[in-house]
Write a structure and sequence with these properties.
By secondary structure, this protein is α/β, with parallel strands linked by helices. The protein contains 14 helices and 17 strands.
């Protein structure tokens, strides 16, 4: 059963220097053309899928979905609703930048059923925002957040980044303290995501801050930023449920949890990746190529059992609750604790992994090297 659909909206006011997504600035005049192709893709893919579908989550990501006229969002929701069954407690999440938020749009989004808004802040410091090429200011961030947090949309999530050029442990602490103060003032702030900066090989950010620049935090400082994040948000009542995600109890992101649990999901739009009928596939990242051939795939991979197991380990260990070993064995016919006994024993003795109540999980100590731990187990 497929329960999640992702809709990619590629339009942006500015392409941030760290961004490696299919996002495009200066193409707003082609919104109508894009949404026509997107609507047709949804129609055809939903007609062709062999799996049963009952959606409990629809996620508009980007790009900046908050930039586009709300009537386009409505048209997509109507197209989906006409094709598949929707859960009575459907969660609709929409990403926005703080300067794309307005009172009028918030009211329109709420009327469309948007129940969760994800606002990309990244930092509350002007110099850090400039360092990564973000095109909003601190004041715009605070203004957009206040509008969102006082609207009728019940759940607001904010995104941050750490490990930024010019960022210090003190400035990161100030950003976290400000976010926590907002959560205490505004009950709607129920979710915070914080991602360590990871740059693509040819990231534009390297043009101003080369790969070996002293402006980037070193490994020790990066780890200190991660531990500060975890401690601060836990103390503020947020549950650390995934490596980079924190939520008030009961408000974990339903959409992203589908990925981490290795379940199938639909995805539509330029560059969108989906996992349907045992196949991972992705649309063209080129805007023009997608418009010309929205049903074509740039990438297709049939997931065999071995790959499925490896992905389940990789994704499951991103969840702080870890992997239920008995359920894993029942689902995949693979006893991870036996097949990787030596590696697991070594990592547990070092304090990087733990097994408690039948669950294998990465410890706080292991988080900074989580990628290496996962590689050792797959």
């Amino acid at each position: 059963m497929i329960e999640t659909a992702y809709i990619h909206i590629p339009f942006c006011s500015y392409k941030c220097d760290f961004c490696d997504f299919a996002a495009f600035a200066g193409l707003n005049h082609r919104e109508g053309e894009y949404f026509e192709a997107l609507s047709q893709e949804i129609k055809e893919r939903l007609t062709n899928t062999q799996e049963s579908v009952k959606l409990s989550s629809i996620y508009f990501g980007g790009g900046t979905p908050g930039m586009v006229a709300p009537h386009y969002i409505k048209a997509i929701l109507d197209q989906i609703a006409s094709r598949v069954e929707l859960s009575s407690d459907l969660e609709i999440c929409l990403e926005a930048t703080p300067h794309s938020v307005s009172k009028q749009k918030l009211d329109q989004w709420k009327a469309l059923g948007v129940s969760r808004l994800s606002v990309g802040i990244e930092s509350f410091h002007e110099d850090e925002l400039r360092s990564i090429g973000r095109d909003h200011s601190r004041q715009e961030a605070l203004r957009g957040l206040e509008l969102a947090l006082t609207s009728e949309i019940p759940v607001v999530s904010i995104d941050f980044m750490y490990g930024l050029p010019t960022q210090t442990l003190e400035s990161w602490q100030a950003t976290l303290d400000e976010a926590i103060a907002l959560s205490q003032r505004y009950p709607a702030l129920k979710h915070i995501s914080a991602y360590g900066l990871q740059l693509a090989e040819n990231s534009p950010l390297y043009g101003r801050f080369p790969r070996d620049s002293d402006s980037y935090p070193d490994e020790e400082l990066f780890a200190a930023m991660m531990f500060l994040l975890i401690d601060k948000l836990r103390q503020a009542g947020f549950v650390h449920y995934e490596v980079s995600n924190f939520a008030k109890e009961g408000f974990q992101c339903r959409h992203n949890s589908t990925y981490w649990k290795n379940r199938p999901y639909l995805a539509f739009g330029v560059g969108a990746h989906r996992y349907v009928d045992g196949v991972r596939s992705a649309n063209w990242r080129s805007f023009n190529r997608y418009i010309r051939g929205f049903m074509e795939n740039e990438f297709v991979e049939e997931i065999d059992r071995e790959t499925e197991i490896k992905e389940a380990v990789m994704l499951g260990l991103r969840m702080r609750a870890g992997i239920d070993l008995a359920a894993f064995s029942s689902l995949y016919g693979y006893r991870l604790e036996e097949s990787r006994h030596q590696e697991i024993e070594r990592l547990c003795e070092a304090g990087y992994l733990s097994i408690e109540n039948g669950r294998l999980a990465i410890t706080d100590k292991g988080l900074p090297i989580s990628n290496s731990i996962i590689v050792a187990l797959i």
